[in-house]
Each structure stands twice: as structure tokens, then as C-alpha cells.
UniProtKB/TrEMBL annotation:
Domain YchJ-like middle NTF2-like residues, every copy: 40-133
InterPro entries: NTF2-like_dom_sf (IPR032710), YchJ-like (IPR023006), YchJ-like_M (IPR048469)
HAMAP family the UniProt entry points to: UPF0225
Ranges in a coiled coil: none
Protein name (database record): UPF0225 protein QTH91_00270
Record-stated family: Belongs to the UPF0225 family.
SUPFAM superfamilies attached to this UniProt entry: NTF2-like
A Pfam short name: YchJ_M-like
Amino acid sequence: MAADLQACPCGRIGAQKKPLAYAACCGRYLDHFDTTPAPDAESLMRSRYTAFVRERADYLLATWHPSQRPATLDFEAGAKWLGLEVKAHRAIDETHAMVEFAARCRGADGRATRMQERSRFVREQGRWYYVDADPG
Ligand SMILES: [Zn+2]
């Protein structure tokens, strides 16, 4: 099956209670960033997780707020992302939001780790950006 038709790595469940396909979920933003930015902070957070899974540094950097954006991004060789759980999405005001999530990853050494964060997002000129995070 084409990768675009497989369940999106972010695990989002659609209206029919079935996992959304990549092309109907984060793929809309990852592959059409210029014309279709993620419409809310949770969608952006999910699409950034999917970008980690697909090692899309271009998307991760483009959706990082310029004030915090690293110059380059390296992916851990052999690491495998195992799943995402969005625990909370809180709109603080029109242009600020917080998303709390947990992501599981298995490193090249085979050890599983669980990463939990509260990420901050800001909207500027109609686009949401990831700013930074506190450990959850
Ligand atoms: Zn997705």
C-alpha cells in the first residue's frame, strides 16, 4: 500500500472512528506547507511528530518559531517512533496555545523511551509555530 494511504503516524482518529490516512491527516500540511498550514496548534504538533517519523527536517524547521529555531536538525540514526498521545490542547488566547503530549521512541540501542512535554505554540500571520516546551 502506498505510504500516503497508510494510517498517519500521529494516530489521529477520524469522524468514522478509524485512523486517518497520512494523506488525509498530516500529509496535507507536510506536503503542502506553503499553501496549507496546519489550522491549529494540535494539528501542527501532530504534523511535527509525523515529520520526525518521516525525517522531514525541512518541515520541522519551517514550523519552528524563528526565535527558537535551530540552524540544523539531526535525526538519531536507527531510532523508531512508536506512537503519539495528545493529552491536552489548550487555547490560551487567539494566538497562543499549549499542547501536552507523550511520544514513545525506541533508540538504535533498542531502549524505549517516553518523552512527555508541554509545548508552546504561537500564531503569526495565520500560521502556527512551535516555540518551545517544558518537560511534562
Ligand atoms: Zn497525522
